[in-house]
């Protein structure tokens, strides 16, 4: 049977998430016409053009498909033991310095095959998809050698083939200094710049290059070398910056026109200004803030004042954010960081798209954008952030087709 070419969604309420109009860019009594996987028309239900298939949404809310723009969902093992140690009083940094933390996940990830990495990530991915996620960013960074970084990125690409979701893959080889380079971080940075980035670029396995700029990871100088190489091979950059201290990572990221700087609890106004000038998105990760029981809040008011787009993500990882609910992150962004529910929803739609360099494709409901849509059984869009541990998803459209479960 030939595939349906046009689909009309009628009797919908749409949180278009376009800027400038009503809160949430909302339109009531609305319809969306979808043609060849794209949004072809948005307007009042009464004026909707005819379509080969029509779905009456009964007043349900439509949002852009949700976007989780920062995850480490591919990894071996888990760190429940470290969770216990932290409850006994050890800090995240102490555990990392004692060879636990990221490095214990490196050991487990190196030991896993691509198939095993895919199999262990799928249940986590399915949790996210069940809440309306249609695009996910996935980082490497638990390999820290060429072979395993490649293996993680292959697993990320495979996840995009096994499920109806768009995957954006980021090379995070500069996540930690591997044991074989202990005491020689510059030597490892040379491996990253001279071998890992070129090989990953050649194989087309990454869409961006990420790093971790922190006392327990890499200095701004070392990250600069990584970014120079990435820029030299035309890969955009992003950075884990100012999570535990202010090393001016965001200032550096902005110098390379980074797509995003992420975490940012310790960011100062100079970093905010640099990000504003470069158009760098602030990605906030309330799950890591919550899990590590951080006290220092990211400078949300400064972001607002300087017009910096704020995105929200799960940071799904086995150590600092074992989180597989993006809706819970909306709640935490509101409750912990005081974002409005509208800002939180923009953080997983319009601004998350921008953090991935995909603002022209996804993240808003408007003519010409890809028809990646989430449909929710809610009375107001604020409910998405208001509830905690509740999933009101009704259905998902991916590239204009109903997602099958
Ligand atoms: O985003 N900050 C560094 N990287 C991860 C944590 C990784 C881990 O603890 O395994 C993060 O929080
Ligand atoms: Fe992270």
Relevant terms:
405 residues, alpha/beta, eight-stranded mixed sheet, eight-stranded parallel sheet, 16 strands, 36% helix, globular, binds N-(iminomethyl)-L-glutamic acid, binds fe (iii) ion
Average of pLDDT: 97
Gyration radius over CA: 21 Å
Biggest sheet details: 8 strands, mixed
Q: How many helices? A: 15
Shape: globular
Fold and architecture overview:
The protein is of the alpha/beta class and 405 residues long. The protein is 36% helix and 21% strand. Strands 1, 2, 3, 4, 5, 14, 15 and 16 form an 8-stranded mixed beta sheet that branches. Helix 12 (326-337) crosses helix 13. The longest helix is centred in the middle third of the chain and has 18 residues, at 185-202. The radius of gyration is 21 Å and the shape is globular. N-(iminomethyl)-L-glutamic acid (NIG) binds at residues 72, 101-102, 105, 212, 240, 243, 288, 315, 317-321.
Summarize the structure.
By secondary structure, the protein is an alpha/beta fold. The protein is built from 15 helices and 16 strands.
Give the helices and strands, then pairings.
Layout: E1 6-15, E2 26-35, E3 38-44, E4 53-56, E5 61-64, E6 66-68, H1 80-87, H2 92-97, H3 102-111, H4 114-129, E7 133-139, H5 146-162, E8 166-174, H6 185-202, E9 208-213, H7 220-232, E10 238-241, H8 249-255, E11 260-263, H9 269-278, E12 281-284, H10 286-291, H11 300-305, E13 310-312, H12 326-337, H13 341-347, H14 350-355, E14 373-376, H15 383-386, E15 393-398, E16 401-402
Parallel strand pairs: 1-4, 1-5, 6-7, 7-8, 8-9, 9-10, 10-11, 11-12, 12-13
Antiparallel strand pairs: 1-2, 2-3, 5-14, 14-15, 15-16
Helix pairs in contact: 4-5, 6-7, 8-9, 12-13
The structure holds N-(iminomethyl)-L-glutamic acid and fe (iii) ion (FE).
């Amino acid at each position: 049977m030939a595939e349906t070419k046009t689909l009309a969604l009628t009797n919908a309420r749409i949180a278009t998430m376009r800027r400038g109009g009503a809160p949430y860019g909302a339109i009531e009594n609305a319809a969306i016409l979808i043609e060849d996987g794209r949004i072809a028309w948005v307007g009042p239900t009464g004026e909707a053009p005819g379509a080969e298939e029509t779905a009456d949404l009964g007043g349900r809310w439509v949002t852009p498909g949700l976007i989780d723009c920062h995850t480490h969902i591919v990894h071996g093992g888990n760190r429940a033991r470290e969770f216990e140690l932290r409850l006994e009083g050890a800090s995240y940094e102490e555990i990392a310095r004692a060879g636990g933390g990221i490095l214990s996940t490196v050991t487990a990830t190196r030991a896993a095959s691509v198939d095993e990495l895919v199999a262990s990530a799928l249940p986590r991915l399915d949790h996210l998809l069940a809440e309306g996620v249609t695009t996910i960013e996935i980082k490497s960074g638990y390999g820290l050698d060429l072979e395993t970084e490649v293996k993680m990125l292959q697993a990320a690409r495979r996840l995009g083939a096994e499920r109806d979701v768009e995957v954006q893959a980021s090379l995070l080889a500069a996540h930690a200094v591997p044991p074989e380079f202990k005491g020689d971080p510059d030597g490892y940075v040379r491996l990253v710049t001279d071998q890992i980035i070129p090989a990953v670029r050649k194989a087309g396995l990454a869409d961006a290059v990420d790093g971790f700029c922190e006392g327990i990871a890499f200095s701004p100088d070392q990250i600069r070398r990584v970014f120079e190489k990435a820029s030299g091979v035309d890969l955009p950059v992003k950075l884990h910056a100012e999570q535990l201290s202010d090393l001016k990572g965001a200032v550096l990221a902005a110098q390379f026109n980074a797509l995003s700087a992420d975490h940012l609890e310790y960011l100062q106004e100079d970093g905010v200004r640099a990000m504003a000038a470069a158009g760098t998105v602030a990605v906030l990760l309330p799950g890591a803030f919550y899990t590590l029981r951080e006290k220092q809040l990211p400078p949300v008011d400064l972001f607002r004042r300087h017009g910096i787009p704020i995105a929200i993500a799960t940071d799904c990882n086995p150590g600092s954010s074992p989180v597989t609910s993006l809706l819970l992150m909306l709640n935490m962004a509101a409750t912990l960081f005081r974002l409005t529910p509208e800002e939180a929803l923009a953080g997983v739609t319009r601004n998350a798209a921008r953090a991935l360099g995909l603002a022209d494709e996804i993240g808003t409901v408007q003519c010409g954008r890809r028809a990646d849509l989430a449909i929710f059984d809610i009375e107001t869009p604020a409910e998405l952030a208001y509830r905690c541990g509740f999933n009101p998803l009704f259905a998902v459209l991916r590239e204009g087709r109903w997602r099958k479960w």
